[in-house]
Amino acid sequence: MPKVPEWYSGAFDHARLRRILRTDPVRREAFTEADIERYVEAVGSPESRFGTISYYRALLRPSSLRNVARLTALSVPVWILWGERDAYLGRKLAAPPARLAPRYVLERIEDASHWVLADAPARTNRFLLEALRTPPDRP
């Protein structure tokens, strides 16, 4: 049913997005009303919604899934910051397959949701600074 997800995501002045940003984060004040308005602006146009939803459609296409077998291992470390209370992505997705990311750093934050940056801004900043300071031949 093409175009239904695009319509639904913008329906009622983006009510679903507004609700998600108000209720999903562990830290309830994570997004101010001004932040929410910026998100709505960013995905407000039909073209933006189409692009966003097309990304997810492409991920789920059988051809995309077949291409996973052709991926090669990354030669640089992969740094992952994971919210343990993510309502959208299961915990098993946090650790990448060893054949694709043989060197990775995974930090799990118990009191963070899908919106890790908004839930734990100080820890996110420390994690990013550590990643940027670490030479690529480590961790």
Rounded to the nearest angstrom, the distance between the terminal CA atoms is: 46 Å
**What is the mean predicted local confidence, pLDDT?**
91
Instruction: List segments where confidence is low: pLDDT < 50 over at least 5 consecutive residues.
Output: none
Q: What would the principal axes of the Cα set say about the shape? A: globular
> How many independent structural domains?
2
Share in β-strands: 5-15%
- Strands across the major sheet, in which order? 1-2
H-E string: HHHHEEHH
Total number of helices: 6
Largest sheet: 2 strands, parallel
Percent helix among the residues? 40-55%
User: Total strand count, please?
Assistant: 2
Q: Structural class from helices and strands?
A: mainly alpha
Q: What gyration radius follows from the Cα positions, in whole Å?
A: 18 Å
Describe the structure.
The mean pLDDT is 91. This protein has a two-stranded parallel ribbon. Helix content is 50%, strand content 9%. The N and C termini lie far apart (46 Å). The protein has 6 helices and 2 strands, in the order ααααββαα. By secondary structure, the protein is mostly helical. It has 2 domains: 4-66, no CATH class; 72-133, no CATH class.
